[in-house]
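Hi R.,

Here's the input for the flavin mononucleotide complex you asked about:
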Amino acid sequence: MSRPTQRFRTAAGGRIARARTISFQFDGRRYTGHPGDTLASALLANGVHFVGRSFKYHRPRGIMTAGSEEPNALVTILQGRDRQTPNVRATDIELCEGLAAISQNRWPSLAFDAGALSGVLAPLFPAGFYYKTFMGPRFIGSNWLWPKLFEPLIRRAAGLGRAPASRDPDHYVNRYAHCDVLVVGAGPAGLAAALVAAEAGATVIVSDERTEFGGNLLSAFDAGHDGDLSAGVNAHRWREQSLAALAANARVTLLPHTTVFGAYLQNFYGLAERLASHHGSPPPGLPRERLWQVRAQEVVLATGAIERPLVFSGNDRPGVMLAGAVRSYLNRYGVMAGSRAVVVTDCDTSYAAACDLKRSGVDVPLIADLRSDVGGAAIDAAKQAGITVEAGVNVLGTTGRHRITSVLMELGPAGARERRAVPCDLVLMSGGWTPSVHLYSQARGKPSWSEGAQAFLPSDPVPHVHSAGGCAGTTDLEQALRSGAEAGAAAARALGLTVSAEIMTVADPDPVLGSRAGAPVMAPPSADAFIDFQNDVTTRDIQLATQEGFRSIEHIKRYTTTGMATDQGKTSNHNTIALAAGMLGRDVAVVGHTSYRAPFTPVTFGTLATTARGSLFEPLRRTPIDAWARAERATFEDVGQWQRARTFPLRSENQQQSIQRECLTVRCAAGVFDASTLGKIEVVGPDAATFLDRMYLSPLAKLAVGRCRYALQLNEAGFVIDDGIVARLAPDRFHVTTTTGGAQRVLTLMEDYLQTEFTDLTCWLTSITEHWGVIAVQGPRARDILEPLIAGLDISAATFPHMSVGTGEIAGVPMRLFRVSFTGELGFEINVPSNYARDIWELVEQSAERHGGTVYGTDAMHLLRAEKGYILVGHDTDGTVTPEDLGFGTGAKKVDFVGKRALARPDMLKSDRLHLVGLLAEDPQHVLEEGAQLTQAASPANGARADGHVTSAYMSPALGRSIALGLVAGGRARHGERLFVPMPSGPIAVRISTPLFLDAKGARLHG
Amino acid sequence: MAKTSADAHLDFAVDTTVALRAPWEGCVFADVPHIATLSDGGHFSRVVLRGYDLAAQGLGGVLGVQPPIEINRAITAGTRTVMKLGPDEWLILAEAEAEIQLDRLPAANLAAVDVSHRQAALSLAGTAVEAVVSAGCPLPLDIASFPVNRATRTLFAKTEIVLWRTAANAFHLEVARSFVPYLIAHLNRAIEAEAAIANGRGR
Amino acid sequence: MLLIPCPYCEEPRPEIEFRYGGEAHIARSADPTGLSDAALADYLYFRSNPKGWHYERWQHQSGCGRFFNAVRHTVTDRIIGTYKAGEPKPDLALYRVRAGS
Amino acid sequence: MRFSFGNLLRQARAGHTGWGPQWRDAEPKAAYDVVIIGAGGHGLATAYYLAAEHGICNIAVLEKSWLGGGNTGRNTTIIRSNYLCEESEALYEHAMKLWETLSDTLNYNVMYSPRGVLMLAHNEHDIRSLKRHIHANRLAGIDNEWLTAAQAQAFCPILNIDADLRYPVLGAALQHRGGVARHDAVAWGYARAASELGVDIIQNCEVTAIRRGTDGAVEAVETSRGRIAAKKIGVVAAGHTSVVMAMAGLRMPLESFPLQALVSEPVKPVMPCVVMSNAIHAYMSQSDKGELVIGAGTDAYVSYAQAGGLHIATHTLEAICELFPVTRRLKMLRNWGGIVDVTPDRSPIIGLTPVPGLFVNCGWGTGGFKATPGSGHVFAATLAHGVPHPIAAPFTLDRFRTGRLIDEAAAAAVSH
Ligand SMILES: Cc1cc2nc3c(=O)[nH]c(=O)nc-3n(C[C@H](O)[C@H](O)[C@H](O)COP(=O)(O)OP(=O)(O)OC[C@H]3O[C@@H](n4cnc5c(N)ncnc54)[C@H](O)[C@@H]3O)c2cc1C
Ligand SMILES: NC(=O)c1ccc[n+]([C@@H]2O[C@H](COP(=O)([O-])OP(=O)(O)OC[C@H]3O[C@@H](n4cnc5c(N)ncnc54)[C@H](O)[C@@H]3O)[C@@H](O)[C@H]2O)c1
Ligand SMILES: Cc1cc2nc3c(=O)[nH]c(=O)nc-3n(C[C@H](O)[C@H](O)[C@H](O)COP(=O)(O)O)c2cc1C
Ligand SMILES: [Zn+2]
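And here is the predicted structure with flavin mononucleotide in place:
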């Protein structure tokens, strides 16, 4: 295939580096461009306009703009196999070596697209057509054909690009930043603001979404040093000087390639910085994008204005472009977007573009101004350049298949109107400018309609936010600079700084801008006069919406989908509002605008997710003993952020066998268990006992030093939320444990009561969860295992009975020892400082092995405690369970405690509440399923009420049969009763029993 | 004098078979010239002191360093540092597991809890430390807002940390034991990214 | 993300360091057993949930750890003041004068 | 004119000039039998069923802004009925049955699409909790089944089931009949059908006061468009319920929080169903237009700002990117918020109030879109007869006094 040359590149000028040539691909064809090009400018340089298909009708579309407002030129970028990015604006992407892009939303190819059929059927598909059909036929039922037939068809036709098939190999990073002044947009207004604020001593961040700073100045004709300097410094030189001054200031951070995408509360802004997309082959390790989260004292919004398209029949053909964009391609990129250009306009700014084109040798046969009354400097300049200007023109349509070939218009004086088709390959259109008030509005400002500016402008002040330049409604360079400087000064003054800098006078390279557009001239409703280009919303759609009673602008938006495409209506919203106002016979001010929302332009998910990926997604907490368990090939389970050893299978064992062996060994000899994840709080102070007594159901005020007590914690509504052991180490010092998942919650709750309710009490809470590694030793041999290792504490049955606590040393390490049991066996929990826990564990484990013991994991722990009917909060309870439901008497404690009063509510006293019971399947080999329902009937009717459900179920090795715990309505009074677990495979009969399956007298416990 | 209930002293005369295992065991630390170096901060004895007007209670003598009056401040004397992290909360760090004689503290209206092993120290130094910490910490870290010897509890990504600026280009971070690998991985990533961006810019 | 002035740290800190604690000044009864069921329900569940100035509790959880109260407008989300737990509900008028609005 | 393919074809030829307004833009009358406050899906459905099933047509639906612009117009449209508590099961299943024929009932394509809703389990606790739901649902005759991780991935191929994920997918509960519907169409469809039956829908009409007679019963409302007398008033104001009820002197067990959602740029179909992960907080489906519709979390504090913090959205996208790694290079297109009214037990309040003639339907929190037809249906019956519809009966305001909470949230609570 021959390689097309850059036929439309100007001979000289522009900000591209002509010395280097870059090769790239579009839809498989090779082209060339230069550094400094965007994909769009390079395509245009090669004469390629037709780059995409529209969303709904699959109409051929070209490049319309030169910036982030582009609605049409969306492509998919491919960088190798793994880096595929859909829906990228060709106007935004910087050309780099090896760039490959493909067009979207077409099949089989861009030129021959089967989807274009929908364009032929367009009369059938006006706005909201899908609400009116695809429901029947009635006899099949309305819910059959839609999901099965029509919806899949519509889905296939919709969508734009394709999501990548593989995982993103790139990474993303985050950065919090703080500054005195954040300047958004580095056009003349933003640069002026930054200069003044920085000069005054503020720390400044300047961000612009484009590669180069300068905004509109970059698109202006550079007359060079020989331009007219009488009015001041050449604007391009001013830009360079200003940038140099900012770059040299250490207080200033310049962020090009960085879009400020969102304004949040109290001057908090979200910025997306593209770090790698402009590198052909990014340096290894370079993050693709970086999220900046900036908190600024003051903000200057200098985001400029966006040019409006005109609304006429056929305004969407490739080759119809915004006038300012054509000018930008010419002056900034050295590209003539066509060879014969017609200008269609209703404002003055497009005249400058016409003059620039003419000067570069492009044929400009006509400026067709829709206004009947034109005149002034801009017009004179064009005429002087030899361009024909016609006023009062009415554009009737355009021709051309994949590129515009002519504009049809009606022109001439009243009475002598003539129709003319003007051949061309480029149309410059301009309907005026819409100030970019997006961020101002996101910052909760309310833009209001200005009749003079014919635009919504920032009006009511937002604290610490200053709008300047085009986004505040200025129209020429002088105003932009002045308002920028003023905004910078205001920001500096608000910071208490003294402002000295003065902005020099700069010659406006666009002396012709000046006057603004009038009220937009709107074409009559037509099926191919496009308002929203990407979503194919036409004037007829807006008309249909108003005809159907959608009068609110928000309804019109949602019914027609105007403004809902990837460009969020940057080029269409104004025209929608103006058109709707006309149709509804209301003022634009009354119609209002739809709400502006973040992001300003779409932001990559990865950028927002930043580093939270894989191991950095969320902390994974491991105990001090974890490495040992991993080396032993334990299996693990997640509990909150923790990972806990679940089983320790021997080589030949499966999970189940491992659990059974671990349990039996504990009951016959002993087991060693890592309980380090248990939450622990040290409560210290003269009122510690009183405080704990108020926080727990169990009476704790009189707990003796050296003793522990099991304690249930309730919320104020009376439901069980946590449990643990409260141990008294000294009159004023307690060691309290919580569940693993509840550690933070319990501490917060206790702090809350201590700081805000029980302010009469003096004590303090300190989290000691991670200070202590906890090794539980449980089983008849537990004492034998520990005794040889321990010093300074007598743990004999007589001196250290069940529920004792004491301190001493283990292998020379200070320890807190608890005699507690969660298995029903003689048990101890050794607490040692965490950094010693691993080695102590090994000593204990070795000692246990000598006594026939084993290590065990959480699965065995769950089973062992169930044999004793001990509850697991969160497993057997779910936040709706009271202590009474669990069989804990609550009447004994007379003094108030958290949750006490709520237990006396009528519903808490009902006898049919769900009670904790034991459940024994009649088939002792059958293990019930946790969560299974319990019913009275073996085969309950659909919709039957359950009598309760199974909360825990195991095969008990000690009992040689299955056991279960459950919550059953009125269950405590129903021991012995038969219930059924209705399973898909058939009902399972069970008997209600006491939840205490083993050693009812507690002989083992007290051994 | 009423004797406090606190463990008489933190005494580390332990059996030689029992080794002290740091939570950063097995972790790799990033070290990038001209950006930052991450390393473990060494072992400390740590005590949380709770109570009101501690400074006024004349604890300086017992602790070997006068507790700061101003919140979110650290004061160092010799091998000891005291940070005031809350209106009634001080964290004492004593280098290399030196003994802190808790039993010499007055017991009334004061609570002392040993948390030596609850958390670990990391240290971060280099010219780009502010940028590196800003990858995860939402506080302003420029030297004016966060001067040397400012110390405060805050966040780094999804972990709570105590951040203490020890020099213009150095931070000491305290983090709960089980969060150590996560924090190290995160800081490593931030250092490497900062380096890659600096290189990318240079091009 | 809100910027919340902590009355203990005496400086504004980012919202993510804090934990929200619901409406302020809903005091627990000194003798809850004396409450009627309706009064208990009021204490437990019923909230003013106003569209306007809201007195609310926050804890500087990943900071100084203290609970305190804030006065925030639930439409603008502006915080005009914070004060320590236990201090009386401040007069809104005072704040407006101080805030100059 | 009826909506049908035939009429669409005929109108295509006539340039679509024949379609009339979908609802009358009514002027308020002096008095109505029933005034509904709030023209969201629930309020409009209530009006429709009052007119269609109870013959009460002298109704006004008052809307402070534009109809359907509240949470109805800003939700992620997930529909399912696999709730845990028997009371909730009955309510949401009632709604589900109505969804299945709703397009036909309203003659408006609401695009109810039973694409299947997957709820992921990431740990043992999730598994237990989802299985408990499945067993309870089966007993109630509601479809809900357990899938292994591999089966879940077969159902949703872009789901990441790698074992080394920080929160691995250990399985999922699937409700086949669950899915999504077009939110706007629901509001507009009910509005059109109600308007046709004579209901006055009055937009830009904010209720500012509720007037009560000497007997304490409601008499009228004051609005931004004048006084409107009413024999009965139904408050269906979602996030603003506390504000409206305060006009009648009532405090509510409600807090209003900003809940966020976001959409990606549209892409060709990649997401065949709805996936929800409660544990790491992410919800995703794909709309007919191609955007990925993603539910984010609530901000921590009470607010009426219909906007929320950036950290909430980023937190959600972290989870989305981990669960669906192919989305990492896609882009967020728009992010918005709604105001949800949340009750202490996360179940709605439907029924009578201590004020005679004043009825309330609120507290749907983050999940009431799915209930829209059912909620309107039972609330209409409650309003018409002055006694709660049997399905609505457990959802009283009084349950907060007696302690008979219907705690859907607690049942999913994580502890231990
Ligand atoms: C981001 C988000 C995602 C959600 N996702 C889901 C989901 O996936 N599935 C699901 O089932 N649910 C979801 N929900 C919840 C669901 O949207 C709501 O529960 C449901 O739409 C509520 O409907 P409604 O008609 O009661 O309220 P709304 O649609 O909010 O209607 C209430 C109306 O009352 C009006 N009003 C208020 N005050 C006054 C007054 N004084 N005078 C007149 N009018 C007044 C309001 O303007 C509003 O239009 C989500 C909500 C949000 C915000
Ligand atoms: N308003 C008009 O009628 C009009 C028309 C044509 C040209 N101009 C000229 O335009 C200039 C106006 O100066 P100005 O500084 O106000 O605007 P500008 O358009 O020159 O600069 C705005 C800059 O902000 C950037 N930007 C916008 N939104 C952003 C975001 N969210 N994040 C990051 N960057 C963002 C843009 O990329 C651009 O570089 C003057 O020279 C004027 O003569 C004005
Ligand atoms: C299911 C669903 C899909 C949406 N899809 C789009 C979309 O494709 N493009 C768009 O701009 N907005 C989309 N929106 C968001 C709306 O534009 C709008 O943000 C939302 O209704 C809230 O209204 P507000 O932003 O005007 O306050 C969607 C909203 C919902 C609920
Ligand atoms: Zn604080």
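One thing worth noting: Chain B touches chain A through 65 residues (CB under 8 Å).

Cheers,
M.
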